[in-house]
Structure formats: C-alpha cells, structure tokens
Amino acid sequence: MKEQKDFLQLFNGCLPVEEIINSWYGRFKNSNYGAIVTFIGVVRDENKIDGLSFDIYEPILNNWFDTWQKNANEKNAIVLMAHSKGDVLNHESSYIAAVCSPKRRVALELIDEFVEDFKAQAPIWKYDIINNQRIYAKDRSSVIKGSGILL
Amino acid sequence: MVRIEFLGPINKEDMNLDINNLTQLSEILKNDNEVSSWLDTCAVAVNDTLVCSKDIPLIDGDKISLLPPVCGG
Fold it and tell me: Which of A59, A63, A126 sits opposite B72 (nearest CB)?
C-alpha cells in the first residue's frame, strides 16, 4: 500500500461511498491510527441542476496530492481521497477525503486544511448539468495561486 | 516546438508553437480571441509543474498547460 493510487482514487461517475469508506477502514484500522476522520461531499439539489460534472487534470492533481501526503506524513498521519470524473447526479457523492492520524487533534485540523486547499488548488473543473448541458461553474471556482502571469 | 494545452472549460484544441519563453506565448495568446479573456485568471504549468513567473526558458518538446479557475468536490 505504498502506491499513490492506493491513497488517491478516481472513479467514472458517482462514488461508491460505502465501498470506499469500508475499504479505507478495513485497510487502516489495524495501523494504530487513533483517529480516522472522513469528509463526504454530496451533490445538492439546487439552482435547477440535475447534477454536476467534473474534468480532472491528473498529472497536476497527483503532484498536489503527493505534496499533501508528505505534509501529513510529517505529522505521522496519512491523507486519502476519492473523486469523480464525469457526471454525478443530485444526492450522489463526488468527493471523499479522509485523514488517519494517531492523534485526534491532528486529524481534525488536517482534514480542514486538506479539504480547503483541495477546493482552492486541485486542478478539477466543475460544471452544472442543466437540461443535459454542462455549464462551467465559473462563479463558484477559485483562481489557482500564481494565476495571471500571461496577461 | 512547444505544445500548449488548454484545460477544463477553455475548450480549445492544443497549439504547437515555435517559442523560447512564456513572454512570447503571452503575446500570442493576448491576440487570440478564444483565449485572451481567460489569461487574467489562468495558472500556467510547464511540464506539469505550476510556475509563478514568465522568466522560464522553454525548449523543444516542453508542454505548457493553462489552468482556469478550479472547483473540485
């Protein structure tokens, strides 16, 4: 379980939440982590959308995730993540993040930082699905650090 | 040649350009109607590493990616 793909998993369509969470718990419950904190993102029914759709640029996502894994490892913790590619309908899950740590405080603080940095920096683009069309969620998107150098 | 790819919603075919630095790329893209409006909010990666400055020499075979604003989860 040293490969990145064991910690960062991408799925076509909605996430099989129970399968993912059970698998992580099964893998790490004997690793003496006193705290396993999970965050499950669920697509809300709002603004007349039928769901969300996602594009991912995997090479930079992998680099971003590796940096986070090193950061977590320095605190004797690990991070785990699953995300959807393509369409995810309302009330399904597109994103799960988790932190396993010997200590509760480390896990609770890291999950907050990890999820917030993910939202701000991970190279994933979100679209609303309305009437079978994908509409870029521009207003909800964040500019990546260092943007605008070509202007 | 340097390959330029436009990620996510920019929705533009890759370009192959004979350029030596990002300043040259900037001049080309500022005059491209499909891309110019994205430039102020796009991050830039050279060979899949994000960069914060235009002062980076480019060599044959390099890949440049433009990353518009993101929203995972």
Answer: A126
> Who's near A71: CB < 8 A, 6+ residues apart?
none
pTM: 0.94
Inter-chain residue contact A146 with B51, CB threshold 8 Å: yes
Q: How large is the ipTM? A: 0.94
Q: What is the pLDDT of residues A1-26, one digit of tens each?
A: 467 778 999 999 999 999 999 999 99
Please tell me the CATH superfamily of domain A7-139, with its number: Molybdopterin biosynthesis MoaE subunit (3.90.1170.40)
Question: Cβ atoms within 10 A of the Cβ of A113, count?
Answer: 14
The shortest CB-CB distance from B44 to any of A63, A122, A150 is to A150
Task: Give strand pairing partners of A150.
Answer: none
- Using CA atoms, how far residue A79 sits from A66, A122, A132, B41, in Å, is 10, 15, 34, 29
